[in-house]
Amino acid sequence: MRDVCNGRVIISHGGGKSCRRQNGSFGLFASQLLTDASVCSLIKNYINKQPLAMIVGNKKNAEFRVPARYCVMGLYYITHAWPEYELNENDDDLTDEEDILNGNNTERNKSKTKREGPFIRWKFRFEWVPDQEFSPWWESPSQKLIYSTILPGTLKVFLCPECVAPSSKIYKTVWICLNHKCNRFWQAWSDKNQWIKVPNNLVYDPVFLNPGLTARDQLHRIPFSILPPQPPSTLNNDLTNSNALYGVQYWKGFHCLRCGRISCRNKWAFWECANCGLRHEVPEQLLAPSMLRNPNLPVLIGPAFDYDSCIKDNSGIIKTSEVSAEGAVVCKYCFPEGGYIIHRIGNSSINKISDQFFIKFQRKDLPFKRNILKKGSNRIGTPLIARQFTMNVGAKYKFSLECDTLRFEETPQIIQDCYNYVQEMCNVLVDGAKFNEMLLAAYLNDQRMSWHDDGEKGVGPIIGNLSLGASAELKFRRKKKKISKNLSDKDCSTDDLSVGPSDHSNSSKDVAEERLSLPYTIFTSPSPYMPIDALELGLKSRGTGPELILKIHHGDLLMMVGHEIQQNYEHALFPEGFRIAATVRYIALDDENLKST
């Protein structure tokens, strides 16, 4: 594919539509289009003359040594973009690139259609932006550079006799028409003024491989810094501002000024350079729940009440509610396929215990850390870590993270107290509920949990969750393959709660979610001269929209009861700020799993 990486100049291609050949190399199974996401984004950078940051991996065929798995090279301009024909090879079996990246390189993922071509691949030339904040790390200060100073316009341009479109002389021996709409695209114009076949052994013109082809109007000061800001060493004096401790800057990378390494923050108490071990301590500040609550919401001192819950029309979900003796509101949501959700909403008096949990969980001596994601780490050759800080206590919970499991007796007392409290409250709501594991997760500002279910193998039918800190929106939607054909197949028992009026409020959220379920959206043209076709956006929804939306506040207890919930639905969480969740489960031990099989 004639990719080049000499540091100052990089020639590469847009991604997508690639397959692995039988000989292990990659080839296209279809032409790359200007509308493809990976190509379109680079074309926009090229047209708008916007620099972009380049990262190189040590598996790239570069002309220099890459000292780490990935290294930031700096800012680059795209000076040239052009299409090339990639000639086909006789390969019957091709494995999709996406399956290979995801580790699904199996027989059933191989393409069944013989590859036909040739296909178009879009190529791009990137050039190092001069006068950056740092010198190229791949060049020795004593190295004598062979690059010559090239004035813009030195690269020769050829006008195609067929389409009269200009094409730069990119290749050493021939001019080639690079207009993919021309009938003579990817044909060479010979010295005898006739079209010939493009040679197989194409090499780039040496002028094209040297720096200096950046346009003069782009040779100005870089528009932004790519160096991450240093973590704050002192806190904002405004103690009501949670961004002073749990803002985005507190979970971004740490740029070590001693060795230059950029490291993720994976420790709760400090940043640590993964190369030289330099530490930057996290200032400790304990936030009270009152600092995170919505000031527009009332402080509940009497019986609590449910607000902001939303059930989608025709979902088949039935809601009942009652008020407990201590003033908590207990709502029950019965699902048509079986199973139900309990949402206990407390008032300021009930939540005093939760207040203490939240404050003490912020201590820096707790074993929170950002754990490694199992999926994705292998395909890029370096660990990927989750955004949230987590810790698992009790039985080993096998899920998407490589999370160490601590015994209850080796954890601080506050963790054991929280586990006992959640278990006791869950037993009040569902008689006989038992647990042997607790997962604590800390969400910093602007973090969320995407769509998933908790139906991992060995997990019991009852899951309890205590919410601490900022409020969050919890959404439930049916899985695509589990849309119920007859929502009245199963009756929902309401023996546990007194039957009250069903709350199926048709709020603005219902209308918004219904609109999102449309297969596409057409926007009206703002100008009579703009064709409406250009404004038709294929905004496909991910399913039919959430069936249930709950607003979870500090001190609220949520229970999911029944395997049917996990089998038929998935949920996503959208916190409004710093939040800690304590989730309890019963995890079957290995011998229990053997007995059930």
UniProtKB/TrEMBL annotation:
UniProt domain Alpha-ketoglutarate-dependent dioxygenase AlkB-like: residue ranges: 395-573
The processes (GO biological process) annotated in the record are: DNA alkylation repair
Query: Which Pfam family is one of this chain's hits?
Result: 2OG-FeII_Oxy_2
Q: Which GO terms describe its molecular function?
A: broad specificity oxidative DNA demethylase activity; cytosine C-5 DNA demethylase activity; ferrous iron binding
Top-rank taxon of the source lineage equals Eukaryota
Region (Disordered), start-end ranges: 487-511
InterPro entries named among the record's database cross-references? AlkB-like (IPR027450), AlkB-like_sf (IPR037151), ALKBH2 (IPR032852)
Q: Where does 2-oxoglutarate bind?
A: Y443, H452, H571
The entry's protein name is Melanoma inhibitory activity protein 3
Q: Which organism is it from?
A: Gigaspora margarita
Q: What is the lineage of its organism?
A: Eukaryota, Fungi, Fungi incertae sedis, Mucoromycota, Glomeromycotina
